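Sample intake — C40 family peptidase
Collected from: Stappia albiluteola
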Amino acid sequence: MTESLDRRLHPVRPDLAAKAYEGRVTADRFVEGETRRVAADLVDLKGAPRPDKSIDTQALFGETVTVYEENAEGWAWGQLATDGYVGWMPASALAGPAALSLPTHRVMALRTYRYPYAELKSPPLGILSLGALVSVVDRQTLRGLDYAVLSDGSAVVERHLVPAGHRVEDWVAVAEALTGTPYLWGGRSSLGLDCSALVQLAAQAGGMALPRDSDMQETSAGETLDIGNGLPELERGDLIFWKGHVGIMRDRETLIHANGFAMAVTSEPLADVARRIREREGHAISTVRRLVAS
């Protein structure tokens, strides 16, 4: 028995599949998988275990990955818990769950340095993006600055964090704060991102878990608005879709989106974007969806 499954969301290959798919698909063997956490600031997920393959998406520090295989070249094949994305990543970027305790907080600043200890003058260990997850075990204050001490002994500035379950009221403001962030195909961090990652990261700050790619968001994010007789009266936070692209309405007329035209997150009149995409790519607006916070 074999189902046609999207490789991006289902850990299934002809030679190996997750145990949960046994009886549904044909594979040489089925495995339970092992829980790991991302121990690198940022790690690329790819469709094949090769450094020259393009980035499908990225995993952030502290996120959970179920690993189903590690090969001799140091690649791990697994599924990201945040949005279910499946791909290959360097095994060296992952640690066992004991090495990184259960996350208690999320990075809410666009990015924050992680120091070896609570001292901003110390050489940083790395830089964490908006959305990264950390486990806070202590707090320290040095020269009037409060630090959150993490489970591995490192430290970040406390005001850059929020509790893991925190929700902002105006999630579009998070997208606006990312204005100027470079466009990166497959990117999913404040260092570089693509159109659907901008939507996903901003919505996450508002407590809404969205799928990773624009085609997935177009079929499942929020509620569909009728555009049979033209565009409805748009509201802040409405999502506008074209084939392969998505943006967020800042108001009734202005769209913010990560785009390859500007190679950055920019805001511009929706009418201008729609005209340009129609003229350059031949695509009209295909769907409008409105997110509803649960």
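Post-analysis note: DSSP finds four helices and 25 strands in the chain.
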